[in-house]
């Protein structure tokens, strides 16, 4: 391929262009200046009387201009449209807008991508808050620049950065029961911790064999979340697991709310809750939002971290140990959640705005006179040792490594 700069003064008609195209198959023309390219396009269109040409001859002219300028034929069409509208191409100038230095370079994007991957891609505001915590609360100096990133720019990098993208890459219906156990009402916590929402998540079937069941319990006010795992959702497995999970909450439990599934609405669970002096309530008919919080966490937490593929029930014990040793600590001390503030709009309707982002532990500490809700043996000094012995990202990496080791041992 030969590169040359050509004098186009001799080309004055469509016939000259056709002759040129026949003899220029192995020649590449270079015009570096954008203004020169625009001048050439404008002059050529005038010379060949482009407005008067037929469809086939216009196509020949566009091909000719595409070869000389190295523009695509689609871009040539756009420039010709500008010329026809009276906006002379010769007067178009190169955009001399100010170019700002790149603030978030490869190092910052790598930190962002690694944090995003370790936290399983939370919403951008939660990720932003975690980056700020890494720098300000845990003193990680390498996060100084990336901690200043805006929420909108996090989404820009997620969608547009090739470096970021290179670094990151069956629900079942609950069986209902008509047993008259539990009050059918919506709990009203009034800002107090201890009002639990609970739901079951099934890990799929395989060749007619049931998988494990995840039991997800979350406090409505603080979003303190405790997860467990059982082989079956029968009384034999559910009662001891629920007793163990409830004991892991650092505050006293007041209310236990579930849907109408028989795994929760039965005499064994009712007896257990009564012995702990915990009120039992269940969802109302045609009120789908009664369990909205825990159901949203089923997707954002359980499905995101444990996936949807079948896991044989013989691994329930191993998964439960992983939950107690790593996962529950990560969820409550190191994962940032969004908290809504209620406000009334112009029409008098109550709206929610998610403007507060904290970990569940920090949300618990922010409650007025919170010490009155703690269990007797629990103090914030003990909880602080758990919360701040490692940074959020350090613990998330430890948790992810433990999860990878767990999944390597799971065989279907």
Fold and architecture overview:
- Helices cover 44% and strands 14% of the residues.
- The chain is α/β, with parallel strands linked by helices.
- It folds into three domains: 2-91, no CATH class; 106-167, no CATH class; 189-408, Ribonuclease H-like superfamily/Ribonuclease H (Nucleotidyltransferase, domain 5, 2-Layer Sandwich), CATH 3.30.420.10.
- The strands form four sheets. The protein has a six-stranded mixed β-sheet with strand order 3-10-9-4-7-8, with helices on both faces. Strands 1-2 form a two-stranded parallel sheet. Strands 5-6 form a two-stranded antiparallel ribbon.
- Strand 7 (213-219) and strand 8 form a beta hairpin.
- The chain is elongated and about 100 Å long.
- 28% of the residues are buried.
- The mean pLDDT is 86.
Q: What would the keywords be for this entry?
A:
412 residues, alpha/beta, Nucleotidyltransferase, domain 5, 3 domains, six-stranded mixed sheet, 15 helices, 12 strands, 44% helix, 14% strand, elongated
């Amino acid at each position: 391929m030969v590169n040359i700069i050509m004098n186009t003064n001799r080309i004055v008609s469509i016939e000259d262009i056709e002759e040129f195209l026949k003899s220029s198959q192995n020649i590449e023309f270079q015009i570096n200046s954008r203004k020169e390219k625009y001048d050439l396009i404008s002059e050529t269109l005038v010379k060949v009387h482009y407005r008067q040409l037929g469809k086939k001859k216009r196509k020949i002219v566009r091909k000719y201009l595409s070869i000389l300028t190295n523009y695509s034929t689609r871009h040539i069409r756009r420039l010709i449209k500008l010329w026809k509208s009276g906006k002379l191409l010769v007067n178009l100038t190169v955009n001399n807008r100010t170019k700002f230095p790149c603030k978030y370079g490869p190092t910052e994007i790598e930190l962002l991508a690694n944090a995003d991957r370790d936290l399983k891609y939370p919403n951008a505001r939660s990720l932003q808050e975690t980056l700020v915590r890494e720098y300000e609360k845990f003193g990680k100096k390498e996060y100084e620049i990336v901690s200043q990133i805006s929420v909108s720019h996090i989404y820009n990098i997620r969608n547009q950065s090739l470096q970021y993208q290179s670094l990151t890459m069956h629900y079942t219906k609950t069986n209902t029961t008509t047993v008259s156990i539990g009050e059918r009402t919506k709990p009203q916590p009034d800002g107090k911790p201890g009002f639990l929402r609970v739901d079951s998540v099934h890990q799929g079937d395989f060749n007619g064999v049931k998988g494990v069941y995840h039991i997800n319990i979350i406090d409505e006010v603080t979003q303190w979340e405790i997860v467990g795992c059982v082989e079956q959702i029968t009384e034999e497995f559910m009662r001891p697991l629920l007793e163990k999970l409830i004991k892991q909450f650092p505050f006293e439990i007041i209310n236990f709310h579930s849907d109408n599934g028989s795994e929760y609405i039965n005499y064994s669970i009712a007896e257990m809750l009564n012995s702990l002096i915990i009120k039992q309530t269940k969802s109302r008919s045609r009120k789908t939002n009664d369990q909205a919080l825990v159901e949203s966490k089923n997707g954002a937490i359980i499905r995101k971290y444990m996936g949807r593929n079948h896991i044989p029930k013989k691994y329930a014990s191993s998964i439960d140990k992983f939950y107690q040793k790593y996962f529950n600590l990560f969820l409550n001390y190191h994962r940032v959640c969004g908290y809504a503030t209620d406000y009334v709009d112009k029409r008098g309707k109550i709206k929610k705005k998610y403007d507060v982002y904290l970990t569940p532990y920090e949300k618990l500490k922010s409650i007025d006179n919170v010490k009155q809700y703690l269990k007797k043996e629990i103090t914030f000094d003990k909880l602080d040792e758990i919360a701040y012995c490692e940074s959020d990202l350090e613990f998330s990496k430890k948790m992810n490594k433990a999860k990878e080791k767990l999944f390597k041992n799971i065989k279907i």
